[in-house]
UniProtKB/TrEMBL annotation:
Classification via InterPro entries: Aldolase_TIM, DapA-like
Annotated source species: Blautia stercoris
Domain of life: Bacteria
PANTHER family found in the cross-reference section: N-ACETYLNEURAMINATE LYASE
Name of the molecule in the record: Dihydrodipicolinate synthase family protein
């Protein structure tokens, strides 16, 4: 019997944590994990886009997940993104994730080469086969992967009993409705784009996974409360406030995740390092943006919590 309740809620995408030399910091990973436990989120999505996964080695990703699981102590739902741009390494990460006891693994489609749907399905199923006792989440992010999850591909993937849902990061909120209508109550659809958290939840997403949640988890937890309670005017106002923070964070020269890590240093005293090249690092002029965004988050928390 599927246990889907553990996936229904606010699930921040986990950030890559580095030391001063730019190597993965186990201490940073454990500190960030404990931060999420304390904030009361449903779970974490590890080694995805926000975790800079395509710029990390297989060993990096293993170290990160091992330390997340160690620090989480069973208090968080853990979804591990395991996709690499080849099947063999993806299977290695899937097997490793299952050995650690994660709740689910997830994977984007193969990138660069535009493969036919039957090859994408085989890639996902081969990864899932390497973790035969673990749930599998399809990660649909066509604007970055270059290929979209179609209804025909979703139909094919539902033949795999381990598939339990879709992390939908495509921009049309209608896609959530279409995947939910096709899968019904046996599948969880996660809202991906943070700027449409409210819209995705209203149209049928039971859970949400997002890259900016970590900077302001309390605000998204409150937004989720408003949606559940049907308080749509309050939800819309808070969604707008969250979006203004996102727009500010995206206005820097440096990558948004570099901005978020700097915000977490100011607001939460977390030392998570920078971002891995070729992602652009912060420049001196970005610090005014960082400070302003950090203040916007504090102001929103004072207003809405």
């Amino acid at each position: 019997m599927r246990n889907l309740e553990k996936y229904k809620g606010v699930i921040p995408a986990f950030y890559a944590c580095y030391d001063e030399e730019g190597n993965v910091s186990p201490e940073g990973v454990r500190a960030l994990t404990k931060y999420f436990v304390e904030k009361g989120v449903k779970g974490v999505y590890v080694n995805g886009s926000s975790g800079e996964c395509i710029y990390q080695s297989v060993e990096d990703r293993k170290i990160i997940l091992e330390n997340v699981m160690k620090a989480a102590e069973g208090k968080l739902t853990v979804i591990a993104h395991v996709a690499c741009n080849n099947t063999k390494e993806s299977q290695e990460l899937a097997k490793h994730a299952e050995s650690l006891g994660v709740d689910a693994i997830a994977a984007i489609p193969p990138i660069y080469f535009h493969l036919p749907e039957y090859a994408i399905a085989k890639y996902w199923n081969d990864i899932s086969e390497a973790a035969p006792n673990t749930d599998f989440v399809i990660y649909n992010i066509p604007q970055l992967a270059g290929v979209a999850l179609t209804q025909s591909l979703f139909t094919e993937m539902r033949k795999n009993p381990r598939v339990i849902g879709v992390k939908n990061s495509s921009m049309p909120v209608q896609d959530i409705q279409m995947f939910k209508a096709a899968g019904g109550e046996d599948y969880v659809i996660f809202n991906g784009p943070d700027e449409q958290f409210m819209s995705g939840r209203v149209i049928g997403a039971e859970g949400a996974i997002g890259g900016t949640y970590g900077a302001m988890p309390e605000l998204y937890l409150k937004l989720d409360e408003y949606v559940k309670a049907g308080e749509m005017e309050k939800a819309r106002e808070l969604q707008y406030a969250c979006n203004e923070v996102i727009y500010k964070m995206c206005s820097a020269h440096g990558n948004m995740y570099a901005v978020i890590k700097a915000i977490l240093k100011i607001n939460e005293s977390l030392e998570l390092g920078g971002v891995r090249e070729p992602l652009p690092s912060l420049i001196e002029e970005d610090m005014e943006i960082v400070k302003r965004a950090a203040q916007m988050i504090r102001d929103a928390k004072a207003k809405y919590l």
